[in-house]
Every structure is written in structure tokens, then in C-alpha cells.
Amino acid sequence: MTILLIGLYVAAELIANITASKPVAVGGIVGVVPAAVFIYALTFTLIDLVNERLGKAGAHKVIVAAFAANLLLAGYVKLAVSLPPASFYQGQDAFAQVLGSTPRIVFASLTAYLVASLIDTEVFAWWRARVGRHRWARVLASNAVSTLVDSAVFITLAFSGVMPLLPLIRGQYIVKMAVTVVSIPLIYLVRTGLPTREGHRAWEPAP
User: Fold this and answer.
1) Which of 58, 59, 93, 176 could form a disulfide with 147 if both were Cys (CB 3.0 to 4.6 A apart)?
2) Using one digit for the tens of pLDDT, what is the confidence trace for 31-46?
3) What is the pTM of this model?
4) C-alpha to C-alpha distance for 179 and 176, rounded to whole angstroms
């Protein structure tokens, strides 16, 4: 199960980077957000599950591995876009437009991801050590902090001086927290009796 969680986490990170270039209209007070925001928000719950099973140090290693995978994706996409297309291929412009994110967007995305993910594991570990029980509460607490940091860092680095920042930050944060709330049942579906690295039995019965 741990390997599956890690695989889903890395896959969600890569999918988010691929789909981030399309803005979508959610409506209401949310407005326009990147299409990636829905699956990207799920990564914070997934890394909490990894943290629960492997501990903070293990979660940090998974974050670094996913960061390396994102760098590989960004580098290879850049290479694929720059390679001359076959004479019969008519989709080069569309391919470059969809996958060829600007360096500023890539830098903003990877920086926000690394900072927010590390903060998420710290808050989650602190809550578990100080409060203990109530798994749903520590997931909400860690995600409430990390998704706010992620939204603020990404929007500021990617769009500062280009468009108003606060509406974009607000919209992303609302969507990410909504996905977090919806994903809460996942933490009760993933159970194991195996001891974690920190000496606790993962997913012990709790309210």
C-alpha cells in the first residue's frame, strides 16, 4: 500500500504540471484557476498518508523524489518541444503551446511545491506529536497551512506584475481546501497494522 501511495503522489504531481497551462472557470467567488488545481490539491492528502506510514523523514525523501521527477519532466518536455518535427507532423505549434510552459511558470510551480510540501510534513508531524489522535484534524490542519503557502508562493512568483494576485490566491486556496475536505475519507480507507518508523502503529483506531 505504501508503494501505491507513493506512486499516486508522484503521478499526481506530474499530471498537475502537465495540465497547469489550461485555466478553467469555476465560477462564484473562486473565478479562474489552473486545471491542475484539483489533482494537485489531492497531493497534500497523499503526502500526509505517506507521512503517516513512513514518518517525516520518509515523507521528505518522497518529496525530493517527486521534485526530481518534475525536473525530469520539465527538461524532457523542453527537449521534445525544441526537436525539429517530422515533415508530416502538423501539431508543432499546438504541442509547444500546451507543453512548453514558460521558465517563470516552471520555476514558480517547483518552488511552491517544494516549500509547501516540506511545510505540510512539518505541520502534520507536529500535530501528530502534540495532539495525537483525530487523523482528519491533522490532515486538515497541515493542508490548511501548506495549501495557503503553496497558492501564495506560486501566484506571486508566476504572476506578480502581470495580473491581480489576491483573487488568484483566494480562488486556488478555496478549491484546494475543498478537495482536501472531500479527500478526508481516504485517510480512513488506508489502514495497516505495521509499525511506522517513529514507533507508532499506523492507523491505530481513533475518533
Assistant:
1) 176
2) 677 788 888 888 888 9
3) 0.75
4) 5
